[in-house]
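## tool: complex_structure
## caller: assistant
## args:
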Amino acid sequence: MEQQIKAILLANFESTFQCAIDEKMIQFQLTRKEFEGDITLVVFPFSKLMKSSPIDAANKIGELLKDKIAEIESFNVVQGFLNIVIAPSYWLKELSEINQDERFGFETANSKATIMVEYSSPNTNKPLHLGHLRNNFLGYAVAEIYKANGHKVVKTQIINDRGIHICKSMLAWERFSPVNAQGERETPTNTGLKGDKLVGKYYVEFDKNLNVEAKEVIAKWDKQAFDGFSENAVAEYKKFTAAKEDKDEKAIATLDDKIKELAKNETALMKDVKQMLVQWEARDPQTIELWKMMNSWVYDGFGVTYEKMQVDFDTLYYESDTYLLGKNVVEEGLKSGVLFKKEDNSVWIDLTAEGLDEKLLLRGDGTSVYMTQDLGTAIERFKEFPDMEGMVYTVGNEQDYHFKVLFLILKKMGYSWAESCYHLSYGMVDLPSGKMKSREGTVVDADDLIDEVVEKAKEMTNERGHLEGMSEAEKESLFKLIGLGGLKYYLLKVDPKKRMMFNPEESIELTGNTGPFIQYAHARIHSLVTRAESIGSFEGANLGAEEKEIIKLLSQYPAVIQEAAKELSPALIANFVYELVKAFNHFYQSVPIHIEENLANKNLRLIICINVGKVINSGMSLLGIDVPEKM
RNA sequence: GGCCCCGUAGCUCAGCUGGAUAGAGCAACUGCCUUCUAAGCAGUAGGUCACACGUUCGAAUCGUGUCGGGGUCACCA
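## result:
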């Protein structure tokens, strides 16, 4: 309808009012509830042009539109706002179109280019936590939203499975794991621990021991015992110690931290880990075997968590395969002159013209950095999927700068697709107690949280649910659906870009703006609709204010899906579904449905129910949330 | 310090391509289940949209500055 009005205005304005208008001047909004009308045209921009008062201009434009568009029943003018009343027949037609469209709001599947969505991308020595939940739910939802917009989607993650930090847990396990009666060190099998948790435990163990050793090193240094330490470290230590003179407490603490870092690097443990990394890079069979074994434990553990989270991936990348990629890209860049070399042979790109700084792409010794690998991986992926049009990286906003630089480099190197690479940058999840910090043990574990939320859903559902006739298995899956749905909704309803507060109590609430609130509405609708024996035509039905309100909302759904893809924001879907449910609950409470005597009216209401249910189901599925038929 | 993000009700968040009297939920208080699922609905109360200036017929929304919070500025990933 808005498109139609716009077209009419553009086509007729000049001939009618003798002045030209710009498309941007045509602004619509939904008519506010207190006025009569459906859509409102803002006439201030025109009144100036037409050299008449806003009210006068609005009346003239209103006449023009009413004359040209049959569905416009009437209009009224309040200040500079032209409120347009659209005929009931238009809304009823709108509803029957929605009703006939099984995939209402969705573009034809696979009608658009492939988009790759990367999310999760965990580090293999830390179990997944609350931050990963936001990441995974966001990434999964954005992938679904792209699909709804007609794109083919490849969901992927890159697993950070190599580097010194991985060797830490390997070494710690070899060195510190107790040995049982059978002569075995701890394994997921003999301890019953989830693999990722076991490996995570040894990563922590490494850190503990490293700290102990580092303290010993510092104690030696403080006694001026410098034998066996690298000259560099000793010199730095002396420099930092000297710098502590006359400094305030804070500055001293900073210096002490630096000394600690130095000392860590001088411990035997650190040297052994570095040695292990060298062995890994040399493909030493024993090291590789250990690495593979421990990684497989982690993947098993992660697999369980992903299953619980109900997220999945179409393809996986491992850093151990990709970390050497990008070096040849650097070569090309050097040839084309985009990159340059410094005296020490290191390779850089100069981004100062873009307001950024110089960025290193290859170390002097020829080894690559993170950026090198990311460049290589991106290019590789576009080769692998030739019909791919863009990529979305779901990564926390602390890496905003990194991605800005990455996309810029790709662009400078002439990859046109760099324009359609996006960083789905999301804010940190805070706890009421403040930031999550692994060192302070305030990290919320993903498995524990999901279990907790499902347990709570079970309690609440047993208390107030409608579970008659459900088997135990059906009940269990309902508890999961409600618990997980609540958690996902809680994390997705907030604008991804923003840092958010995670309140454990609120996350399992079921009243107000929550997942279960929406799920409940769906269950109600289902029971209502299944009760109807047959639903016929609503020809001749009376369109009341409640009915119209809902049809209007429903008709916005396609635009919301498009907007959500454009903004990379599942929150838009969540908020839309919430608005729809609120409007529906009002409708449900104020209008009789089965008791309605007029058959056409009853049918109209039932068909509205069916389509609200359909859109709830559809919208929630875009968020990765299931809705129940009973609860 | 440079750059980036954020600041809306007691709390958690919408609204931000400028538009009418700034909206929800939670928490508090009042009502509504012998008609369809009360995990619901209706209502009361709660605001200097951090602050200042500017642009505009019109600013929570755009610009500049100030204050406050966070992030980032590694030959780490």
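## assistant note: The mean pLDDT of chain A is 92. The first strand of chain A starts at residue 28 and ends at 30. Handing back to user.
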